[in-house]
Specification:
This protein starts with a helix and ends in an 8-residue tail after the last strand. With 329 residues, the protein is an alpha/beta fold. Helix 4 runs parallel beside helix 5.
């Protein structure tokens, strides 16, 4: 039995070898999509998409040096520093997101790690958003286990903390925190009993092997992330990665199909970069197993397709927005 035959069964494994992950990723394209679609249908409704909304609740002036990020204080990108939003602003945005079909509301703050006063404010946001009947997600930098427990007690359902890329390529993208720092935050979140949202960014000059290694790392965590965002680099003038060669769209589709096969029960989110994708590319991503997106015309500080544009695409593809909260992921 080949690796793809094993993957087609849709069993949840955390013991994938790197060679197995490579064999999945490099399979003939039609075989890869065929098996990914079969596994997807084993665990999910085939024509249903979960929708989240992402709001930047504190923007800019981040001390980190992530080369893709327009919010870093180290780069001149035109992003203005904004203090933490007021509670009522966040609640109003969450209420509007729910009215537009979102089931999860994600709050992002450009912190290296939150200070006690900042965490207290984030906790109030989480509690109020959850009271609206939405799932809550936050991404506010590195966390200790104690901080993660505080967020859990406030009602946080998901915590996003991406690995970005492979361990070997990571130093080319970020130098102000280590790969192990990221893994430690993920473990703190998991230990606190919060669902994990963790993925990466493609198109940052990494090799195919780096993309495979990233997916392998995610698929061999002690427990798969419930949500796996696959981002395509949004090139922002002023950041060091601006001007790179664009990622081949089929490489994005390959990564999504591989994520679906290696992590069959995870929601795979087609995330940043959709504004640079044509409808055919997005359609292939859904065929490959993507079943979650962000609604709204902005993702933190970068553009995203408008809601009406997404609705038109869904209608053309026969996709329905998941209206009830998923049991997990």
């Amino acid at each position: 039995m080949t690796v793809l035959d094993l993957a087609r069964l849709g069993s949840v494994r955390t013991d994938w070898s790197l060679d197995e992950a490579r064999a999945v990723h490099t399979a003939p394209f039609s075989d890869l999509l065929f098996h990914a679609q079969r596994v997807h249908r084993t665990h999910f409704a085939p024509n249903r998409v979960q929708v989240s909304t992402l709001l930047s609740v504190k923007t800019g002036a981040c001390p980190e040096d992530c080369k893709y990020c327009p919010q870093s204080v180290r780069y001149e990108t035109g992003v203005e520093r904004e203090e933490l939003l007021q509670l009522d602003q966040v609640v109003d945005a969450a209420r509007a997101a729910k009215a537009q079909g979102a089931t999860r509301f994600c709050m992002g703050a450009a912190y290296r790690s939150p200070k006690p006063k900042q965490l207290a404010q984030i906790k109030r946001m989480v509690s109020e958003v959850r009271a609206l009947g939405l799932e809550t997600c936050a991404t506010v930098g590195m966390l200790t286990r104690e901080q993660a427990c505080e967020l859990r007690d406030a009602g946080l359902d998901y915590y996003n903390h991406n690995l970005d890329t492979s361990r070997d390529y990571y130093g080319e993208i970020v130098t102000t925190r280590t790969y192990d720092d990221r893994l430690e935050t993920l473990q703190a979140v998991r230990d606190a009993g919060i669902n994990v949202c963790c993925g990466g960014i493609l198109g940052m000059g990494e090799s195919e092997q780096d993309r495979i290694a990233l997916l392998h790392t995610l698929a061999t965590l002690p427990r798969h992330p419930e949500s796996v965002p696959i981002n395509q680099l949004v090139q922002v003038p002023g950041t060091p990665l601006h001007g790179l060669a664009r990622l081949d769209p089929l490489e994005l589709v390959r990564a999504i199909a591989t994520a679906r096969l290696l992590m069959p029960r995870s929601y795979v989110r087609l995330s940043a970069g959709r504004s640079d994708m044509d409808d055919a590319t997005q359609a292939l991503c859904f065929l490959a197993g993507a079943n979650s997106i962000f609604y709204g015309d902005r993702l933190l500080t970068t553009p995203n397709p408008g809601r009406s544009q997404d609705q038109q695409l869904f209608e053309r593809l026969g996709l329905e927005v998941e209206r009830s909260l998923p049991a997990e992921g």
